[in-house]
Structure formats: C-alpha cells, structure tokens
Amino acid sequence: MTETIKASPHQELLERFRAGQRVALARAISLVEDTRPGFERLLHELHADLGRAQRIGITGPPGAGKSTLTSKLAMMYREREERVGIVAVDPSSPFTGGALLGDRIRMNNISTDPGVFIRSMATRGALGGLATTSKEVADLLDAFGFARVILETVGVGQTELDIAGTADTSVVVLVPESGDSIQAMKAGLMEIADVFVINKADRPGADKLAQEIEVMLHMRLGDMPASAGHHGVSLKTVQKHAREGLRAHAHEEGGWAIPVIRTVAQSGEGLDELQRTLDRHQVYLNESGELSRRRQRRLAERVRAVVERRLQRLVWERGQGDEILQASLAALEAGADSPYTVAERIVGELGVPTR
Amino acid sequence: MTETIKASPHQELLERFRAGQRVALARAISLVEDTRPGFERLLHELHADLGRAQRIGITGPPGAGKSTLTSKLAMMYREREERVGIVAVDPSSPFTGGALLGDRIRMNNISTDPGVFIRSMATRGALGGLATTSKEVADLLDAFGFARVILETVGVGQTELDIAGTADTSVVVLVPESGDSIQAMKAGLMEIADVFVINKADRPGADKLAQEIEVMLHMRLGDMPASAGHHGVSLKTVQKHAREGLRAHAHEEGGWAIPVIRTVAQSGEGLDELQRTLDRHQVYLNESGELSRRRQRRLAERVRAVVERRLQRLVWERGQGDEILQASLAALEAGADSPYTVAERIVGELGVPTR
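Predict the joint structure of the above. Result:
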C-alpha cells in the first residue's frame, strides 16, 4: 500500500518543478491526470507549498460567457504582473477546444503569455474521479507559484459544482436570457456563490435577473431543500416573504454580503468591479478566518477522496474483484445472483478483519 | 460485513411490496434512498424480479421540455393501460418542485393516476451516491411491475449523464434555441443517445439543429475525444467529411439507426412517432441481443458501485477513518502532513493484508 509514498520516482521532476520550469509543470500535471505511479508522492511533496494562490471558481450554464470572463480576468491579472493558472473543466469551453461554431473567443493574448498556464481537463474517464483530479491539478498550479488559479466549470451537475464550489472564491455567472435562473439556483449554485455575475448585462432581462437573484439571496433559497416532495415556491411568495422583513436575514455570510455584479465580458464592462470584488473577497477570507475554515474543509474532502481512490485500486487492481465480477455476470443476468452478494464476496476477498 | 445480506429485517415489507401495495413501494424507496439497514438485502431479494420494464432515460439541457415530454409519454402509456414509474433527477423539473416561475406543467392527470408513480430524487447529499441510488429506485419500480420506467435527468454533468445513459433506451432532448448543440454533444450526449428529440420544433432553428445532429451522427462525433489539447473541428469540416463519403459509416449502431424526431411536447405533435420509436427500440434491443449486453454492463457497474459504497462504510462508519482525519486536520493545514499520508494511515488502519 505504501509504495507510492515511500519511493519517489520523480525527484528530478520535483526539482525542475520547484525551479519553475514550465515543462516540469506540464509533466507533473500529466502524471497526476493519468494517476501514474508516484503521482501521490509528488503531490505529497508539494503539499507544504500550497495555499499561496487565490483559487477562483467560475461556473454557470453553457453560453454564459465563462471563458471570456476567465480570459479577460487573466489579462487583467497579467497587467498587475501576477501569474495566472487556468483549469477548464467544461466541455463547451474554448479552452477545451469546445467552441466549434466560431464562438471561439480571442485568447491569443493569454495563450502565448508565459505568465499564464491553461490546462483543460477531459470531462470523462478521468481515473480516480474528475473532481479530485481537477483539484489536484489546481494544487500543482498553486504550488508552482501562480498568484491566481481559476477553475472554470460548467455549472450544472454534481461533479462540476463540487469543483467550482471548493475554490476560495466561487463566482457564479448567469445571463439574462438563461431564463432558468431560479432552477439554476436550486441546482446548487446559490449555495456555492460568493459573487454573482450577470454577464451580457446589456441585454434585455438583466434587471429582472438581478432582482431575482437579490430576492433569493435575501430568502437564502439555498436553505430550501431541492429534494423530493417539496412543492415549489413561486417568485411572488419569495418576494412577499422578502418584503415582510426576512430582509433582516440579508445575504451576509458572516460579514460578506454576496454582491451581484453586471458585466459585459466582451467589451470589458464591469470587469474592473469584478476584479476589485475578488480582491476584496480575498481580504475578507483572510481577515475573517473563513479562508482557514474553507481550506480545512477542502483538506478533509481531499483525504476522503484519496482514501476512496486507494480503496478502489486495492479492490480492482490488486484484489481479485474483476475476476469475481466477470465470473458472476451470467448468474447476475439470470437473477441467480445479485449485485449485492457479488459485492459482498469481492469485499470479503480483501480480508478486512470484521469487528 | 455480511449482516445486511444475512438478516432480512424487512420480510413483511417485501411481502406487501410483492402484493403490489403502493405504500410498500414508497417505503421501500425511502429505505433505499436513506440507505437504511437492510436496504441491500431488500434489493437483493428483488433482483430476480428485475428486467421486465423498459427503462427509458430522458435527458437534455434545462428548459428543453423534458418533464413535459415525460408527462405526455406517461399519459400515452396509460392509454395503453401500461403502468409507468418516473424517477426525476433534475432539480429544475416540476416533478421535484422545480419550476418556480409558473412554467409548471399540468401534471394533474398523471400525478393522481394510481397507474403512475413519480419519485423525485434529491440531487445532493444522497448517501452512497446519487447515481447508484437513482438506479436502485428504478430497480424498485421495475420489480414492482411498471412496464415503463422513465428516468428524467438534466443532461449536463457526469452523474446525470451516467444515470440517463444506463437506461435501456436513452432519449436526448434538445431545443432549437439551445444554440449549444455541438457543445452538448461533446459533453457526452452523443454517446448515450439512442433517440434524439428536437422539442419545440415549431420554433426557428429546428432545421439547422436537425442538420447539425445528423451531420454529427454521420461523423460519429462521439469518437472524438472531448479532452485536453484537441482542437475543435468546425461544422464546415464536419460537413465536408460527411460529404466525402463518411456517410458509409452512417449512424447505425449494429442495426439501429439513431432517429432524430421532432416534437412539440406541449401540443403533442410528434409524440406518437416518439412512442413508436421507443417501442421499436425495445424490439430492436431484444432481437439484436443488445438488451442482454446493456444489462450485463449495467450489472457490472452496479457491482462496482455497491463495492465502493461498502468500502466507504467500512472506512468511515466502522473504521477509525474519521477520528484519524479529525486528529490530522491541524497538521494538514500547517503543511506538516499531507492528505496522501493521512489517507495512507486511514487505509492502513483497516488491516487489509498487503500482497
């Protein structure tokens, strides 16, 4: 079990990484993405170097302009001579070669800048889980010394929200025409947002969307279960409650009032305000102690994910899980055996002492 | 380890379930959703009863009209006196109380019909994983005797695609104005679709969307990696290749030509054709042997998921994983310890013999 930590087959890589060689960073990322031998050792070695970057999650529905925002923000940080790492976990992102139909934004400025590193992640088939791997890649960018690490993910789906939601600062991007703002909220965006951006705010509906978000922030819709059996609440009800004094609850999370910022990423409108807000949130995180709380949560989640990955490998790569499974398929299909008894045999075969 | 399978604390529930009591079905679903003691035993007992239902996955972006389609289909099956179970894993679905803004469709006809059972799933916090639990709930509906079990999920995100993609028949619903059809494809929809539906086909853009889907089907875009470092291909390139004879590859998967059906779910237009297509796919699955292959894949996946869940419980509920983790948090944050060594200690504590 311990070989990956004990031996370090990547000492040279580590040294070149620490010397700031970009090619070593790229190799380290591939190592982690492919979960090749020694990748955990490498991450272990770099763990003490983490925590200097501000991790910014940018998420929202497809077409909200997340990639344009990300590019523009990156350029603005570059003007301040800060280095920026970008992890794109969004199959529709131009960073991942997504924008097939000519929507591709002009990223030339940043993609050739040595102070910017862009890595897009495959959205399927990541060994050991996309969420964990993306965060480990963000770790590498942090350890490499980027002052800002931006995680761009499409904001629908559990995995994707998980990635964006574990950043230091999570930005949720919506557009007036999305028309499903409240549904988006219920899908979990409300709970992760530190900052709301209404992008393409020059289009009709921006005011209405801003109002909806404000109302929901006041109502803390995030506390409403999105689960079975609960009936929907109309916007009118929400507004009524808001008027009736729930405004007192406000949308302040321990001193941080979640702002709603209007931008037009294409033209740059509102981006100064967004950047100032991100800076302000970083200060808030530090001064309030919230940064430490968030990072502890993130570390605990990481431990759980790594344990899970190790157990998986134990069963499916070292154990006889696959043999047992294959030998059981016919009986499973015939209904003579069930997935539950087969799983029991596979776990039993590990020889874990039962207490 | 084996207690959950050996003892059956739910014998009476099982009997009432088999007697067709709806309240027993509801109780069984809650048991499974909450992964309460004995839930695996119950699923084990019912395993031999599975496989009679056609499982239909309905997925697509928010606002595509999935719930309306689902309701209308359910009504049509009811006209044939077939019973229908619905599992909604979509926070924006009216079934989950999602449509706050008055979009709520009229489901009164089906929600009061004893031949229809609707269960919406919480999209977060499901113990043991949303994907597995949703499929286990679908199992219960199958075992209970529903002829059609419809799984409605929002078609973005790994978990959500996984749920819809493991149905017998997967329907991908798009709308003309979504405008991001190709990105949607790259996000994995192409790979899971047995049937494409262009809903709201009376709106502008339906022809263009149909053409795009056809072209991509001919190109088998599903084979193109959506991963890092691959440059996007323009629609023109795709069309050029298609013209140059790749049409020979066609979009036939072992005899099934993936149809693109136009519907207007609100008015019912095209729904007859959709239902006929679903029937035709069921026949195809049976006659081609594809049903058996799909179900074997599904069973193998289930075994893996159940093994994973059991290992999780072993570590976090029976083992001392949590104690070790909590005791390590300060060192983790200080950088004195890393998630990888802590994970190693936790797994080591299980006492799995290393080979």
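Residues 97-106, 221-252 of chain B have pLDDT under 50 and may be disordered.
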